[in-house]
Automatic annotation (TrEMBL):
InterPro entries: 2Fe-2S-bd, 2Fe-2S-bd_dom_sf, 2Fe-2S_ferredoxin-like_sf, 2Fe-2S_ferredoxin-type, Beta-grasp_dom_sf, Diverse_Oxidoreductases
Cross-referenced PROSITE patterns: 2FE2S_FER_2
Record's protein name: Carbon-monoxide dehydrogenase small subunit
2Fe-2S ferredoxin-type domain residues: 5-81
Organism: Rhodovulum iodosum
Keywords, sorted A to Z: 2Fe-2S, Iron, Iron-sulfur, Metal-binding, Oxidoreductase
Source organism superkingdom: Bacteria
SUPFAM superfamilies: 2Fe-2S ferredoxin-like, CO dehydrogenase ISP C-domain like
């Protein structure tokens, strides 16, 4: 008899079934079993945010979520944000506004910023800084990350208005 549990979850729109130990962390299932390597393992204490994913409409740090807690969940990682023909607006703005340097924190930053903009499509600079405060970057000083998120918000709002 196996100690592993049968796990069903949807990641980036694709249904997955796997086996996981009850104490296994979501980040390990994503990276090691499903081959989804955008979320990074940084601190394993939830301080850095490099492992941030969107689960059930909320930003979560996958290094502190048990895989069992993701049973039946809809999960989006940075890989799920891009379009088949290009980058998501946030990804493009991070590139354009130099919101990344070494890139280690970038997947978690972009995924968290995506949820922030889903919840607040027109944030102020202060709201962006507060909303991103759980994600750490050791390289950039945050100025360009904030600029990238605000620019993405402007572009996403303009695209929404043009579609209406």
């Amino acid at each position: 008899m196996s100690d592993k549990m049968h796990l069903k979850l949807t990641v980036n729109g694709e249904a997955h079934e796997t086996l996981a130990e009850p104490r296994e962390l979501l980040i390990h299932v994503l990276r090691e079993q499903l081959g989804i390597t955008g979320p990074h393992i940084g601190c394993e204490t939830s301080h850095c945010g490099a492992c941030t994913v969107d689960m059930g409409g909320k930003s979560v740090k996958a290094c502190t979520v048990f895989a069992a807690q993701a049973q039946g969940a809809e999960i989006t990682t940075v890989e799920g944000l891009g379009a088949p023909d290009g980058l998501h607006v946030l990804q493009e703005m991070f590139r354009e506004h130099h919101g990344l340097q070494c890139g280690f924190c970038t997947p978690g930053m972009i995924t968290r910023a995506w949820r922030l903009l889903q919840d607040n499509p027109s944030p102020t600079e202060e709201e962006v800084r507060f909303g991103m405060s759980g994600n750490l970057c050791r390289c950039t000083g945050y100025q360009n990350i904030v600029k990238a998120i605000l620019a993405a918000a402007d572009q996403m709002n303009a695209m929404k208005e043009a579609a209406e």
